[in-house]
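Hello again, I could really use a second opinion on something today. For a while now I've been wondering how a particular protein folds. Please have a think about how the structure follows from the sequence. Here's the protein in full, and shout if anything looks odd to you:

***
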Amino acid sequence: MSIEILKLATLNGFIEEFDKATGIDIRKFPEGTKVKVTTLYSTYDLKIVNPPESIIVISGSGKFFPHITRAYFSGSTLAGASLLKQGWITLDWGMEIYYDGERIITSTVKAIFINNVPILKSSIN
């Protein structure tokens, strides 16, 4: 009897996905940069307040962040896994954001805009 383990369920599989992930590191952009992120179900407008500390202000079209809110941007997570690509907004991964003691994970990122210019778009529907 053999047991099949999904590649992503292994540490090596996750590292492979992590290394080939496409996105942006918000910590590399200047303070005040505006980032628009379209996810599978919502659109979020972020403004980078403190790049080294990953502090943002965010508002969104979905149930999260209906008003402009100051938050900590943790990074990208794949399917809510406990592993995180810190500071990154990554195509086809969810964004993890902390606000008021709550961990919020968005649906998967489909497009990224910087100062209203399209930068990256997912090829996966």
